[in-house]
Amino acid sequence: MGEIADGLIDGTFDAETGEYLGEGPGYPRIARGTEIVAQHNNSNKSNPLNGVNKKLSSRGYITKSEKRNLMVEFTNAKSSQSNKELAEIIQSRWAEFIKFIKTKQ
């Protein structure tokens, strides 16, 4: 996927107009006047692993072990932590995570 498409998906750019909104939180956003709102129904917020898996898949990481290894490496986590726990950490540091996976390719 291209940089612009990635930016639309992760919320860096407005999903309707393409306008730059700033670092994306990991999900599409839309500017409504001076307010920036999420475009989704918060389903990824209830399970942050969905968004992390989608982003890693779009970057070519297909297997569960590849994804798990990257998540553990990024978070410097203990191997006993669940993928959902790792995804919550990643969501809170989304922009940093995007830069991290770009350096891995």
Mean pLDDT: 83
Which structural category fits the helices and strands? mainly alpha
Characterize the biggest β-sheet.
2 strands, antiparallel
- The total of beta strands comes to 2
Low-confidence stretches: 41-45
The order of strands across the largest sheet is 1-2
What does this structure look like?
The protein is mainly alpha-helical and 105 residues long. It has 2 domains: 3-38, no CATH class; 43-103, no CATH class. The protein has helices spanning 3-10, 43-46, 48-58, 64-75, 83-92, 94-103, and strands at residues 29-32, 35-38. A two-stranded antiparallel ribbon has the order 1-2. Strand 1 and strand 2 (35-38) form a beta hairpin. Helix 3 (48-58) packs across helix 5 (83-92) and helix 4 (64-75) packs across helix 5 (83-92). The longest helix has 12 residues, at 64-75. It is elongated, with a radius of gyration of 14 Å. Residues 41-45 have low confidence and may be disordered.
Brief digest:
The chain has 105 residues and is mostly helical.
Task: Itemize the secondary structure elements and their pairings.
Elements lengths: L2 H8 L18 E4 L2 E4 L4 H4 L1 H11 L5 H12 L7 H10 L1 H10 L2
Antiparallel strand pairs: 1-2
